[in-house]
Amino acid sequence: MFKNCLSLLTILVFSSFLGKFQRAFCQITPAYDVVIYGGTSAGVAAAIQGARMGKTIVLIEPSKRIGGLTTGGLGQTDIGNKQAIGGISREFYQNVKKHYQNLESWKFQKKESYRDGGQTKTGPNEDAMWTFEPSAALKIMKEMLEQEKNITLVYAQRLNRKSGVKKSKGIIKSIQMESGQVYSGKMFIDATYEGDLMAATGISYAVGRESNAQYGESLNGVQANETSPSLKGTISKNGINHNFVNGVDPYIEKGNPKSGLLPFIEKEHPPKDGTGDSKIQAYCFRMCLTDDERNRIPFVKPTNYREIDYELLFRNYEAGEKAVPWINSSMPNRKTDTNNSRGFSTDFIGQNYAYPEASYAERKRIFENHLNYQKGLMWSLAYHPRIPAFIREEVSKWGMCKDEFEDGQGWQSQIYVREARRMISNYVMTQRNCERLEVAPDPVGLAAYGMDSHNTQRYVTKEGYIRNEGNVEAGVKEPFAISYQSIIPKKEECGNLLTPICLSATHIAYGSIRMEPVFMVLGQSAATAAVLAIDAKTPLQKLPYEKLREVLLKDKQRLEL
User: Fold this and answer.
1) How many beta carbons lie within 10 A of that of residue 98, not counting itself?
2) Minimal CA–CA distance to 90: which of 77, 74, 106?
3) H-helix or E-strand containing 373?
4) Are 482 and 87 in contact (CB under 8 A)?
5) How far is the C-alpha of 486 from the C-alpha of 541, rounded, in Å?
6) Distance CA 398, CA 471 (A)
7) How far apart are CA 419 and CA 456, in angstroms?
8) Ordered DSSP codes for 53-114
9) Which helix (DSSP H) or strand (DSSP E) does residue 166 occupy?
10) Least confident of 228-232, 276-280, 323-327, 407-411
């Protein structure tokens, strides 16, 4: 019996030691040259570029799916001028064209029957295709990563945002995940939409809208445009500034302010136009819909549906709205990329303010609120008796896709984070850059889309009606340069971190830059700078720009037109 007890004790001691050893081992990984946090399109492009330049790369994706919005439903590419896009970003769109040249890729329609009516309509002589299904984008991105050596792809690892960044003398040494896993490296890239690694590193950043006065702009801050001429000529064809028709009552009991406001309306009237605040433009989901009965999942009424949440939608139709509130862009295989439009649509206006700084648990709650809202919206448009019959007839033809986002019954796990944190570096991109009144001297990419901000809040006018505030759609005449300094922090804050998504830009300038092809461009440029800085053994801020420019051009980036 003594021997048995001794043997048992030995096993317990050894097991305890082994457990501690395994926990310690799993928290330590080999050092990488470049650690990329965020498997968005920018993160994927950065990983590919770093590997092509001969470095070891780890690409850490907090969720279970890479590609961000490019694989998350945004198949109608927003760019403005396709000639501004080069490098790995253009490779991706060239691979999209190759994918759809294969007749086996066309399951629900014939190739010749597809027509892209969007801004990126592909001509017969173009080398790329700019519209695609989410599943096709995911397949292509995975294939592009698999073609490269030295890329370690990690899923479902979230940064410990409280104490996970180990920094010494302005240099990040390692980052730790919530699981305890540690990744060390020479250079780090924050390729998230939220800027979590940037914030945890102690980098200066902004959230919300600057005042027009701060950087000498005219389209920043509050944009109620009730009397201001600042947006003359920028009114969208999709409703006046994506707003309500005249005369929609905001009160629970029509005409009775004492009855209280309907849901999701701000109690205070906005201050004068151009005033800064901490509010951010609305989020939504870019839905992939189909009208093919073989692949369609009809819209379903959520179990927690509240009719009062859609009272403004009903009243807007009763006041005279005539259109379906969406932009329903055709994608291959009888699918769509469906986006917000008009006064009450997929944008859950004013319900995302806390998201950039929120905990993971709070972000999940915000995500679920947005998802339930949009599910309820689509069911209402398709089936609610207070919606005009011709609208119900049109919307009910559509539904989610059985072969997209299968885990969510056609609903994706990537919310459309139009903006969150934005770094403040030595160079802040502003409206002046977008209008080419100021030209960045050290370009690492081009942006070409208009300055685009979705609505930010919903309020009651002085006349007692409902109105949205924050929409701006101001054109950009030609592509403009994005500064290298705008994707790196101030030297005193960190010497080895790049942020190709949450770059240094004002709210309104970011509205032009924040497009997926541009994020891929900036991801590639960020990785190029990271590798060159490693080889030169220098902080990013001391990297000679001419050397960076030389390599970017060699790798087919477009820095000027």
Assistant:
1) 13
2) 77
3) helix 360-383
4) no
5) 11
6) 27
7) 11
8) TT--EEEEESSS--BTTTTTT--B---S-GGG--HHHHHHHHHHHHHHHSGGG-SSS-GGG-
9) strand 165-168
10) 228-232
Q: Do 14 and 43 contact (CB within 8 A), yes or no?
A: no
Helix (H) or strand (E) holding 251: strand 251-253
Q: Is the pLDDT of residue 400 over 90?
A: yes
What distance in Å separates the CA atoms of residue 274 and residue 229, rounded to the nearest whole number? 12
Residue corresponding to tokens 């920043």: 220
CA distances from 376 to 252, 285, 370, 406 (A): 19, 13, 10, 20
List the structure tokens of 546: 């001419």
**Under the phi-then-psi rule, with left for phi > 0, alpha for psi from -120 to 50, and beta for the rest, what region is 374?**
alpha
Q: What is the DSSP string of 393-408?
A: HHHTT-EEETTSSGGG
CA distance 478 to 134: 29
* pLDDT surpassing 90 at residue 236: no
From residue 145, alpha-carbon distances to 39, 49, 157, 515 in Å are 11, 10, 19, 21
DSSP 270: P
Q: Are the beta carbons of 487 and 500 closer than 8 angstroms?
A: yes
- Residue 267 one-letter amino acid: K
Residue 379 CB neighbours (<10 A): 19
341-368 burial code (b ≥16 CB/10 A, e <16) = bbbbbbbbbbbbbebbbbeeeebeebbe
CA dihedral over 490, 495, 500, 502, signed as positive or negative: negative
Q: Is 297 helix (H, G, I), strand (E, B) or coil?
A: strand
Whether 46 and 185 have beta carbons less than 8 Å apart is answered as no
Q: Would you place residue 232 in the very low, low, confident or very high pLDDT band (cuts 50, 70, 90)?
A: very low
Adjacent-strand bridge partners of 34: 57, 187
d(CA 507, CA 126): 33
160-194 exposure pattern, b = at least 16 Cβ within 10 A, e = fewer: bbeebbebeebebbbbbbeeebbbbbbbbbbbbbb
Q: Which structure tokens are listed for 308?
A: 């009062």
- Write the pLDDT tens digit of every residue in 139-171: 999 999 999 999 999 999 999 999 999 999 999
Three-point CA angle 114, 116, 118, nearest 5°: 165
Phi and psi at residue 537, in whole multiples of 5°? 55, 50
The half-sphere exposure of 310 on its side-chain side, counting CA atoms within 13 A, is 25
DSSP 267: S
Number of Cβ within a 10 Å radius of residue 544 = 11
Gap between the Cα atoms of 411 and 343, Å rounded = 23
- Strand runs labelled E in 255-295: 256-261, 289-290
pTM: 0.93
Quick one: which of 32, 41, 147 has its CA closest to 522? 41
